[in-house]
Amino acid sequence: MDRVKFILENTCVSNPVLCPELKLHLITDSCPLLYAGESELEALAIGDPYWAFCWAGGQALARYILDQPKVVKGRRVIVFGSGCGIEAIAAAKSGAAMIMASDTDPFAIEATLLNARLNGVHTDTTTRDLIGNSLEGFDVLLAGDMFYDSALSARVFSWLQTLSAYMDIYIADPGRGNLPLEIGTIERVGSYHASADVDVAGKFLVKSEVFVLRSRDKGA
After folding, report:
1. What confidence tens digit (pLDDT) does each residue in 47-94 have?
2. Helices 56-67 & 86-93 angle (0-180, nearest 10)
3. Which fold has domain 3-218?
4. What is the C-alpha to C-alpha distance for residues 101 and 103, in angstroms, rounded to an integer?
5. How many CB atoms lie within 10 A of CB 22?
6. φ and ψ at 130, to 5 degrees?
7. How close are the terminal C-alpha atoms of the chain, in Å?
């Protein structure tokens, strides 16, 4: 399947609620793919099209980066679970020296590249599964809405704690209940209201918060 052609034919250019200055190829209520059932998605063999929605955590983190460009300016940034690419685009717009958008779904990578071009910016990409790997060479990691599954969340958070010893970790989450907020190394730095999950019209908003994960080794 031609992934680029599929994305272009099944999405519309839209402006996310929290980041209206950005443009993204997203599923809207006029796109037939929004109404596709499980059997139809199986027939298409594309998996769940998470890349075609701008999730609340991703929007919140992108908004934070756009409002606080010093977080990424002149720094090497990696986006974990890039999805539609909104955080990578925000980092590029905010002056990051280098950006790597990572997602194990090849459709997400194509969507990220299309959306980056749509906004006149560039990002490198990878489909490698990064969990558990060292990311020496990067200064900042962005993870928007990656705590949607309890088992995955435990693995990801443990890994991010290790990475926080030598890089800045920014997380955004719309209260899915899998982020261990009682851990003393998490600091809330922003709070926004973003579109709820697949609410493509932006009529229903959920509170989505941005956190920085401090390293225990730094005495945070």
Report:
1. 889 999 999 999 999 999 999 999 999 999 999 999 999 999 999 999
2. 0
3. Rossmann fold (3.40.50)
4. 7
5. 24
6. -90, -20
7. 48
